[in-house]
Write a structure and sequence with these properties.
heterodimer; A: alpha+beta; seven-stranded antiparallel β-sheet; 20 helices; about 45% helix; elongated; B: about 325 residues; six-stranded mixed β-sheet; four-stranded mixed β-sheet; about 35% strand
């Protein structure tokens, strides 16, 4: 196999691999990717045949110019004002054309640069753990290409143009090198200095595409929860802290938002009721009673300010500077989160997040907009007489028993009222229809009520030791005010039939697999995508702690410490573990800039410094120049013979050539290196010899 | 015998510079965006660089280098030295090794050396000066694995070779000067190659020595008597009493005379002469054969100018021809 063929094939494989994640990341369109891949495969087939003719440079330039109008159209019309797509298209186009025009050695390195930037784009837009596989593949092919190029380079110096590569067994080493590079990347990744908060594209749950989590924003439609119920993505995780009693996760209810204003199709919430008082250590207390158990939660971005909390939450420590509550007692963050939020909660025995009693006139919780006469009549018939709590329970039971659950949205019907259609025509629907109907029916009877969205239940993941709450656990229910008495107030009712309530399906091995996958995603998100300065500080702290323990182990007890074990030791309270906001300090940024500039300067110095001319280098250049003149110069020709040859064939260059060869012989054979004072003499001799050789043609 | 190696420095290649520049670009991008996917890329690139550094060092270390120099080495005459590279590594082979010696021109390529394996080869050397020549080190370098860096290791050899003086072509004009010098009364009949005389064939003579041409011409059997080679002697009178040679030109001429003496000795020994070498600081009596050849070459390889002396150098056999070699040095009054 000739060198050029081998190099083209290696470059083709790398070019095929480089943009692979881009279409999965929604950064590149699939048709564009398929066209590109087809062209690269065609190139590979052509390279395997190793024809003589390849695209000349002028043709490459003409094709490049022809693409300019397309690029303009792509930029202004197709790209929708975004730069990334058109630039990627341009890069792919340029790379394909370059592949078909690989004629000289620099062309191949230019193609390598193009491939590298495609790889960088692919990595930079990826969030899924599968990019580790992509990275491993790319590293393996790149290292093979580099090793092959190095081997060709060595062989080329010895006048070979056939590879013989297959006879040098490198496969085992390359496998080892790939694995070694990836393993070494782990500590490098952990210790590379970070100066900015980690940035992630999308939620990290899928291949970078953003998933909107409807149902927890300021206004929701009647199918908002139904939309996200189809997703298996993890919304939040809970881990019980040491000493806390485990909870049955199936019955946990997570309150995210409450809605009291119904507009016929859409629910809206009243403006927030106010800020929560902040205590020491960014702690917010919702009820003064001490909590009976503690838990840590990890919340994935929901694209809303809602902070889902167990309804029993009495204390919350979210690590943010302010929290507010809406009119129904749901807690709101000051801003939407972009990556996983970690916070701690203390739970009471009874539900806490129920808000204040309604105003005397009921306020928005008695608003009956959207109520039809037959809905009012139905409420009166079903609820009958009795205490408020009994009447509300009757209505709840009626809806649970007489209606069916369906995930299909059946529309608003001919009268344009979806709740009326649900109650009297279709008699089936999803949880929001059940909850919304119950709220309006209660309001017709003068009972304040509101819609609540959040999550119901969760599953215990044995791989993580966490309770996992998925998007499919999203649910809507009702809070009704049953009276001002000591055991009354706002109570939770759930009119959705059991079939419609989120539950953990017993999927056996499939479920276990899913839990393992969730575990991997969570760890990936937590320890890779959102890894930051705080984590690095924690690693260093643990390393220091381990070092101290080790030192103490060998040092033995110190004098005067003998009674230390008799002293009572205070058990520290559970550590607060907020998601520490990691912003760059000016000193860190300045340090990083100085470091990068110094590295750049060092590399430039390495590249640009004037290397001293050695006699060996001068002799090699002299030989090359003479060989260009058509004189055969076999490698075995000794220097004295070269000197004689120069004398015979190039009289003008004979004297300086003899000087160079004398220097060379003296250094190489007699072991006397060139003195600094002779450096200039050698340069002059080389210059004169080259001039003489040029003169001789 | 295992030898310890000494690292010989590191040279970054163009590919290495590009890789470092790419790494820098990724570092800037990762620092600027805080994107951990780019940090993963950067970490993998650092990993590859580290692997490259470790593998290239491993590739050229833990070798056993053995060198076998030939018995006769002449100045300015290419010769081959046999070498053996043995890998001491149990697990990893070696790739793309370039082997060179001080005094060798181009390094020799050893494409692949299996683990615990040996590679034998010959490397051409050319030494410019006579005398003792040390080959202190062997150099092993490599671009392996990825061509980012060229690394080298020096292996201590401590080999020494005695370089004999340069030999001139056999038709050198100076050899002719030996013939007319002195008479040749000691020529005797023997079994050499050269003709001594012709006479009539006698019973018992070796029929292989009948001179058939003369026999045909005269009609009588003519017998060819050959000269005894032992009787051919040459004394080389090399006057090295020339004092210290400061002038490089004079030193160069002195070296040339040494080479002429060596050439004369080698040529005449090859023709069966008994050769004697007489110098100011030594005398190597008449002898012939390989042992004498080596003795004279060794003497000439090491001969140095000594203090001048007035008395002339004399051959042991006053009747034998001699070759007198003396450098005329102009000395300041």
């Amino acid at each position: 196999m000739k060198f050029a063929r081998g190099k083209r094939i290696a470059l083709g494989w790398l070019a095929l691999l480089a943009p692979l994640p881009l279409p999965w990341n929604d950064v590149l369109e699939w048709p564009v990717f398929i066209v590109y891949s087809t062209l690269v495969v065609l190139f590979l087939r052509r390279a395997a045949r190793d024809p003589e003719r390849w695209l000349p440079t002028w043709a490459m330039n003409v094709i490049g110019l022809a693409y300019l109008p397309l690029f303009y159209v792509d930029l202004t019309m197709l790209g929708g004002g975004r730069l990334v797509g058109p630039v990627l298209h341009l890069g792919l186009f340029a790379l394909v054309v370059k592949l078909f025009a690989l004629r000289k050695e620099p062309d191949k390195w230019q193609a390598v640069i193009g491939i590298f930037f495609l790889f960088l784009a692919a990595m930079g837009t990826s969030v899924h753990p599968s990019i580790v596989l992509y990275l491993a593949g790319f590293v393996a092919v790149s290292l093979a290409l580099l090793a092959r190029f190095a081997w060709f380079h060595v062989l080329g110096q010895y006048g070979h143009d056939e590879t013989g590569f297959g006879r040098v067994p490198l496969g085992g080493f390359l496998t080892l090198a790939t694995v070694g590079s990836l393993l070494l990347a782990v500590p490098f990744f952990a210790l590379l200095p970070r100066v900015r908060t980690p940035y992630i594209v999308g939620r990290g749950a899928s291949m970078g595409a953003e998933l909107e989590a409807a149902g927890f924003t300021d206004d929701v439609t009647l199918d908002s929860i139904g939309q996200i119920r189809n997703s298996r993505d993890v919304a939040l995780r809970l881990q019980w802290q040491q000493g806390s009693a485990p909870e049955d996760p199936e019955n946990m209810r997570w309150k995210a938002a409450t809605y009291d204003l119904f507009g016929g199709v859409t629910w809206r919430r009243s403006p927030p009721g106010g800020s929560l008082p902040r205590g020491r250590g960014l702690r917010y207390t919702l009820r003064a009673d001490p909590p009976i158990r503690w838990a840590t939660l990890w919340l994935r971005p929901l694209h809303s300010t809602s902070l889902p909390l167990p309804v029993e939450t009495a204390i919350v420590e979210p690590g943010v500077l302010s929290l507010s509550v809406d009119q129904g007692g749901a807690v709101l963050l000051p801003h939407t989160i972009l990556d996983t939020l970690q916070y701690r909660v203390g739970l009471a025995r009874q539900p806490v997040l129920l808000g204040e009693p309604p105003p005397p006139q009921g306020g928005p919780t008695l608003n009956t907009e959207g109520v039809t006469p037959r809905m009012r009549k139905l409420a009166t018939e079903v609820m009958g007489q009795g205490t408020v709590a009994e009447r509300v329970s009757r209505l709840e039971n009626h809806l649970v028993q007489k209606f069916d659950y369906s995930t299909t949205l059946l529309g608003a019907g001919p009268n344009g009222n979806p709740l009326d259609t649900f109650l009297f025509e279709t008699r089936r629907g999803h949880c929001e229809l059940f909850a919304s109907s119950m709220v309006l029916l209660l309001r017709t009877q003068g009972i304040p009520a509101r819609l609540v969205t959040g999550f119901l239940g969760g599953e215990y993941n044995p791989f993580e030791g966490y309770v996992i709450v998925r998007d499919s656990n999203a649910h809507a229910w009702v809070e009704a005010y049953v009276g001002p008495g000591p055991n009354e107030g706002w109570r939770i009712y759930d009119p959705t039939p059991p079939a419609g309530r989120p539950s953990t399906d017993d999927g056996g091995v499939w479920r276990l697999g899913q839990q393992a996958y969730d575990f991997m995603l969570f760890r990936w998100d937590r320890y890779v995508l959102t890894f930051g300065v705080g984590d690095q500080a924690e690693i260093l702290r643990r390393l220091y702690s381990a070092w101290t323990s080790l030192r103490n182990l060998f040092a033995g007890p110190k004098k005067g410490d003998s009674n230390a074990s008799d002293e009572p030791v205070a058990i520290p309270a559970p550590q607060q573990n907020p998601a520490a906001p990691t912003t760059a300090s000016p000193v860190a940024i300045a340090g990083a800039v100085v470091f990068l500039l110094a590295t750049l300067a060092f590399i430039l110095w390495l590249v640009l410094r004037r290397k001293p001319l050695t006699p060996a280098a001068a002799y090699q250049r002299l030989r090359q120049r003479m060989a260009r003149g058509g004189v055969p110069l076999p490698g075995s020709l000794p220097p004295l013979a070269v000197r004689q040859l120069a004398k015979d064939k190039y009289p003008d260059a004979a004297a300086p050539a003899a000087r160079i060869i004398d220097f060379y012989v003296r250094e190489t054979y007699a072991g006397k290196p060139l003195q600094e004072t002779e450096q200039e003499d050698l340069r002059t001799a080389l210059k004169e010899a080259e001039a003489g050789l040029r003169k001789a043609g | 015998m295992p030898r310890r190696e000494t690292p010989e420095g590191i040279r970054i290649t163009k590919v290495g510079v590009w890789f470092v520049l790419f790494t820098l670009v990724v570092a800037v991008a990762a620092t600027n965006t805080g994107n951990n996917a780019l940090y993963i890329t950067l970490a993998a690139m650092f990993g590859a660089l580290t692997i490259s550094g470790i593998a290239s060092r491993q590739n050229i270390s833990a070798l056993i280098v053995a060198l076998d120099l030939p018995g006769e080495v002449f100045a300015n005459q290419m010769f081959s030295a046999a070498f053996t590279l043995t890998s001491r590594r149990r697990f990893l082979p070696r790739w793309f090794l370039l082997f060179s010696l001080d005094g060798a021109g181009r390094p020799l390529l050893v494409p692949y050396l299996p683990r615990r394996g040996k590679s034998r080869g010959r490397i051409d050397l050319l030494l410019g000066k006579r005398g003792r020549h040390r080959v202190p080190d062997a150099h092993v370098s490599s671009l392996f694995p990825f061509g980012f860096f060229s690394k080298g290791s020096r292996y201590r050899l401590d080999a020494e070779v005695l370089v004999f003086p340069e030999l001139f072509p056999s038709d050198g004009i100076h050899l002719a000067e030996a013939e007319p010098m002195g008479d040749d009364p000691s020529r005797r009949i023997g079994w050499g190659h050269d003709l001594h005389s012709l006479r009539a064939f006698r019973r018992g003579d070796d029929p292989r020595s009948i001179h058939w041409k003369q026999t045909a011409r005269t009609g009588n059997m003519v017998y060819m008597e050959r000269e005894s080679e032992r009787n051919r002697r040459l004394s080389i009178l090399f006057d090295n009493g020339v004092g210290p040679l400061v002038d490089p030109l004079a030193a160069q001429r002195f070296e040339r005379l040494v080479s002429e003496a060596a050439t004369a000795a080698v040529e005449h020994l090859a023709r069966g002469y008994e050769i004697e070498l007489v110098a100011r600081d030594g005398r190597w009596p008449y002898a012939t054969g390989a042992r004498q050849r080596r003795a004279i070459l060794e003497a000439l390889a090491l001969i140095q100018p000594v203090a001048p002396a007035a008395e002339p150098l004399l051959a042991s056999d006053p009747r034998a021809p001699f070759l007198a070699l003396r450098l005329e040095v102009e000395r300041a009054a």
